[in-house]
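Researcher: Dear colleague, please comment on this protein.
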Amino acid sequence: MSAVPESDSKRSTVNRLSAENVTLAYDQRVIAEQLSVEIPDNSFTVIVGPNACGKSTLLRALSRMLKPSGGRVLLDGQVIQSMPARKVARTLGLLPQSSLAPDGITVAALVGRGRYPHQGLLRQWSAEDERVVQESMRQTGVAELADRYVDELSGGQRQRVWIAMALAQQTPLLLLDEPTTYLDIQHQIDVLDLCAELHETQGRTLVAVLHDLNHAARYATHLVALRGGEVIAEGAPNDIVTAELVEQVFGLRCQVIDDPETGTPLVVPASRKARAERITAAS
């Protein structure tokens, strides 16, 4: 049997998406410095942390929406900023935190925009495009809204339409910034179940920012905990989610027990009285 070429061997050990020593800033306001994150291939990675810790900023950098002022983001071994936009769009899809639909656009037309990276000068709308759009709407529960105008929908319905558009892009990597925003608890679980299914049955690599730590611990295969633009811990939820970590990252006193449904970590905040007593004792 012939030996694996050194270049192929090295490539097989490198994950497709990573940030290397990046400095992330808006104008002169630095959000993170020397931040490095590697997204495991075929994982469902969830980024958690308190407000303003850099979660969404990191996701924007990973998706090429924000150029690091230092360091680099790599996609398939290339600096993402140097890659053609269409090539990136065929590999990596993004559901941003807030999106605005054009006036007067229907649900089906908006979801259909997810197929644009697959179009070209000679390639027009195809039966495959139509099939993917219909399937994406079905998976997100918006098929019956296909002919409705997006601006007529509720916040939760619009969120599911945007997720359908991201699915229609059919990228092997999918980044989602707070995908459960505006959704009631039933639809939050539906969306996260869908994400888990995309990861498990289609082998997609997903990266999501979530605020709910218990949802993150239940669904993630890899968890990244940020605070102040720094990675405090990362790994499988069962390996890293402890009461000490939650207090360090979120400043919340709690217990961590086994979720009776899944066996994953379940964060139970201390009672108001217990937290008040601790504050009094510390003062």
In short: The radius of gyration is 20 Å. Residues 102-169 form one domain. The chain has eleven helices and twelve strands. The mean pLDDT is 89.
